[in-house]
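Lecture 7 notes: from sequence to structure.
We start with the chain below.
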Amino acid sequence: MSLLLILSTAALVFSSHAYDFSGMVEKISETNRMTVNVTQPGTYGLQAKVEVLLDSPLPDLSCFKDRVLQFDILGHDILGRPVCDAYLDGINIRHLYFYRQN
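Predicted structure tokens for the same chain:
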């Protein structure tokens, strides 16, 4: 019984994070705004693009252009655009950016 509890606890620690959506960054408009193609594989004749905002500017956001990012929605701006945290392979892009700078 205790072995089952230990294995269950370990599974919770290593479970993957469920993101709100993911997509390929196609265009960077400002240091906190990007256009993301969220079309899923196998969807024909319909292409969905979303303008996504980061909660604060990130210098050189363009280094993430043409990358598939995952997004957690924090809220929406007055125009209804999602304000998000962005991740590349499960790592927040702010951490990746600042790691590359040092």
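Points to note: The helical segments are 2-13, 93-101. The chain is about 20% helix and 40% strand.
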